[in-house]
Amino acid sequence: YGNVFTFKYLKITVTNPVTEPISCEKIGVIIVDHGSRRDESNQMLLGIVDAFRQTSAYAIVEAAHMELAEPCIATAYNACVQQGATWIVVHPFFLLPGRHWDSDIPRLAAEAASGHPQTSYLVTAPLGSHPLMAQIIDERIAGCLSHGRGKAPDCSLCENTDKCTLLKAEV
């Protein structure tokens, strides 16, 4: 029973589909990354979440770090519920599926949800299997090559660093 969606390297079976229509106002989105000891990295996620919040139809959007930094998934889940969300979508800001997507994030989401029996939640697939990823990779490589050849300024990630500098191999 259920719908099966097959992609090149991924098969998803959706069982027990929910028939209740959901409005975006009832959906809370948590974008979760690994978390870092580097504050700059944690701040980058907050910027990404702010950009998503401003451009998406979802009224409730929170950031979370899986570990090493706050807010954690439980804190973000609570914030979504306090804002009226009854459906929580936990989106791993990861490129590929691995242990964190397979077990850690679902476990942390379940723990967070256990205090809110009036809610339902799901953990989405990570980013890497999305068809636009090839275009994003191509654009990043082209931009860095242009910068490395002196034909474009630093991007915001490489600003004030020695990254994207074309180097000669040493013998």
Task: Tell me about this structure.
- The protein is α/β, with parallel strands linked by helices and 171 residues long.
- Helices cover 34% and strands 18% of the residues.
- The protein has helices at 39-55, 73-82, 99-113, 133-148, and strands at 3-6, 11-14, 27-33, 60-65, 87-92, 120-123.
- It is elongated.
- The chain starts with a strand and ends in a 23-residue tail after the last helix.
- Mean pLDDT is 84; it is low at 1-18.
In terms of topology, how is this protein built?
Blueprint: E1 3-6, E2 11-14, E3 27-33, H1 39-55, E4 60-65, H2 73-82, E5 87-92, H3 99-113, E6 120-123, H4 133-148
Parallel strand pairs: 3-4, 3-5, 5-6
Antiparallel strand pairs: 1-2
- Total DSSP E strands: 6
Number of discrete helical segments: 4
Could you tell me the radius of gyration in angstroms?
19 Å
Spatial gap, N to C terminus: 61 Å
Summarize this, please?
The chain is α/β, with parallel strands linked by helices and 171 residues long.
